[in-house]
User: Fold these one by one.
Assistant:
Number 1:
Amino acid sequence: MRQTAMRVSIDVDQDDYTALLEVIVARGRDLSGQDPYPVVRTLAILAGSACVMLVYRWMYSHFELSLSNNWPVLALTVATCLASFVVVSKTPQANLLPTERGLFLGPHSIQVDGEGIKLSAALARCEYEWAAISGVVESKERYFILIDRCGGLVVPRNSFASQSDDLEFSEIVRQNVFSA
């Protein structure tokens, strides 16, 4: 007989949470067709441009370079611009990582049944009805249960005692998500 409820003990780490953020951001791009962080990208470009102007101005005033020998200045300017872009574009994701053993990372228990998903952790308890689940994404290492447009749960696949438990979990979730 097929199981209709299941409880799984999981341990979510920063790699799991970062993977969830990447799925949510990619899904945001898919839904809107636009970059979900246009302000960050614009700031990165402006910061890079400001660095280019400052480095060029400093180099030109200190070394009295002429237009004919500008290639070292241009190379340094491009390198500075790229470095500022990388730093600025990575900052928001780093700031979104939760603390260890807080609400999102650490040991959790997830129960799936006909009513929805129940999440229990040391600091929180949540219940989600199936209608709140907007999708499920599976990778080789994790299940991503997407909630609304900007949230979700991550279930590491190594949390299951066996492959049959993994498949049973997938079946229960998919059956309920796509019938809600």
Number 2:
Amino acid sequence: GARVEQIQAAYSFAMPTWVKTNPEALVSVQNCFGKVVAYYRHIGDFEEWEDFNLRVLNISKTRLGPNHRMVMDLLAEMGEGYLAFGRIDESEACFKEALTICEAYPDLKMSEAPWLILNSAGVAFMRGEIVMARLLLDQVMERLAEAPTMNNVVLLEALANYAAIFRATRNLAEFDRVSLQAEEVAKEVWKSEPARVVSPVLALIRSNEELGRSDVADRFSQWIVNEMESIPFSGDDMRGYGLVPRVFLHDCHENGLPASIEMIRPNIVADMAGRASI
């Protein structure tokens, strides 16, 4: 309503001034924009979500230029949103446009391009285009190999995607290989970005369960829950990693993972229930 219009007006005003003179000042406006987008996604209102995003995208392109890196970020976020709403064609178009912009920035080709290609691989997999998904994942691995330092977060996501492909094609030898590699990479990622581990590890747990690799699934599950128990809770749980245990256990419940996983360390649920509310 009126609040959304105010945020859009503020965003429009900020573009020609703050971005050029004081980029940090734009953070508060972007945060408001992000909250509105997240709200529409949460309630599942696709029409409002798309309308708001397209208006902000138009403002960004008009004020900053169609090839600005902030436009790339918006397109990437819209691609993920479209995917969440099941709009595969629109998602693919956003990722492709974002990648085209990304390729024009030498400093982003190594850091952001692998993410965008990885998302495109996910779109191809959802379409059932297994060969294309595999080719795109191979491109991701090539980009990672060319980078001065390995981005283990992207690598972990890529390995989880490979595992999904090998599960679908019943290539068990390759599935086991990437699953074991992903396990080692996950441990490295956990040291610096624990929250980025949960989604790919859950995907790997499901894949192993579906293929009857219950020993690997249980090992993954036990490891991540043990690690989460070691995270110190604080008053900043809402912003920190304290939410990870609840997210993980909620996902276990919603997706019907084995009861043994749900019941591991029940004190996590009790602890978090008393410390934070979502």
Number 3:
Amino acid sequence: MSNWITPTQADVLTVMAGAELDAVRSQALADGQTDPLPGAISEIVQLVRGFVAASATLSSGETIPRKLLGASLNLIRDRLLSRLPIQDLSNPDRTAQTKAAYDLLKMVRQGDLQVDTADDPITTETASPAPVELASSSRSHFSRNSLNGL
């Protein structure tokens, strides 16, 4: 089993009712808009990876550490439901879960919570700075003595 995974629609359905997801995918669309689920998943995956990158090596692809799946799903749910003009969908329990998800990500960023080792670590090479060469030099026209008294 991989330590890093990509959240799927089936995963999202563990934190949302099917009717809620269907409403987001069909009712909350303007003309020409496509299914918002893939975009929401990708956006939250990138957000989570940003927090993880502060303290751990990332795995390749649009993957997140398995132990952050629950927090990620809560954030995906929050993002999707915010598209609907219904306030009742954001109940105190869901609000607390969203806050807890961000708190968990902050712990990861600070290194207080370790994530699983990357399955396929991304290696980044740091480019060395280019050498600086002085092209020309000019002699100062003013000196401490010539400006004395100004």
